[in-house]
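Kindly review this protein for my students:
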Amino acid sequence: MTDSSPTEHPTRRSRRPRPRRRATIASVFGEILLTVGVLTLLYVSWHTWIGDAIVQSEQHAAAQALAEEWANEAPETPGPSETPAPDATAEPEGPAAIPVLGEQSHGDVFGIMKVPRFGSNWQFKIASGITRPDILDRGEIGHYPDTAMPGAVGNTAYAAHRWTSGAPFDPIDRLVIGDAIVVQTKAGWYTYRFRSLEYVQETQVQVLLPVPNQPGVEADGRYLTLTSCAPKLNSLERIIAYAVFDEFTPTADGPPASLTAGVDA
């Protein structure tokens, strides 16, 4: 007969449950830092890619709608029968006067900027002023109010973000000498040609002078200046693009060749 005793199953031992590891201040702080890091990464990703893409799409659509509105309001070009006969005794006329808009109120949208180098769909509305909440942070391009209007003698200057809020000037460093920078208003298209790029300290406001970087010099030409932050994720410096006036095309004549010619995107 088999002897049954308390030692029948010697390998089975009652195991006491291990005590749960208590959270320490260091472990809790580490988890908080990890969570904050993940949220920060998601936030930056949203503003850098997803948010910018959404704002860009909205701005492109709004600019296109405004351009179509101006095109529909444009007067038709007179036909041959409506054109008065030239006076044989009259002196030859000089170049046609370039129309210039008057001073705009803060926040007024008066133009659209198009740069073929940045893509056929790249177009953003231009508003008067460079304040962030109501202009730049909405994805619009701001016009420095104390600078010339498009087509006027002097320097017409603009500012926009390079990241977040649609990042209108993100590709500014891709400009090539001779590239068209076109400002469209209700009157027509003002084409400027890119000439040079430089990086300056944020205090170097001479770039906005009537003749950029030439204090005390009276303007005798038409210039355009684009300004934005550099590098893209901070405001240590400013990236500046300079251009000179090329031509004006009235709305009634249709879009200028500068919007489509000479760009290998």
Summary: Residues 77-94 have pLDDT under 50 and may be disordered. Residues 25-73 form the longest helix (49 residues). The chain has one helix and eight strands.
